[in-house]
Amino acid sequence: MSSQQAPLNPWYKEVWVWFILGILGMSVILGTSMLVIATRNPPGLLSDNYYDVGKGINTSLEREELAKRLALIADFTLDNQKGTVALQLQGNSNPPQLVLNLLSPTQPERDRRVILQQQADGSYTGNLLDAIEGRRFVELIGQEGGKDWRLFEEKQLADGQRFRLDE
Question: Which of 7, 21, 100, 152 could disulfide-link 114, Cβ–Cβ 3.0 to 4.6 Å?
Fold first, then answer.
């Protein structure tokens, strides 16, 4: 009785060895690429100091309460072709200048600040540096009696449309 043994193939000719090495190699490549992506795009919406954020919320609420007591309503229009903002303010405040912040909810580089100057007819105008459209948090800040007030709402902005900010 002679038993014949099948000849053994070298390890590098076995399919399963390359299958397992392929899985390990892909996991290293994917892990490295995710690490590169994470280091090049840090999260921008996180805050390191929650105490300061909490103080800011209280200040914001006080400013909004002052705007409500002053019965403020603002109507504004964006004109992207001319690059202007026109605003009418109604209520018990008449500051010489207003600040209009157009804040993107997710992309801080798209935030815009417009300084609005009072005109002779009581309206306010300011200049835009570029066209602004889409979803924005609209914040109007003014001053009355040495205290800041604020109107704040989320709007879907479009060229030429009239928008209202109120309590």
Answer: 100
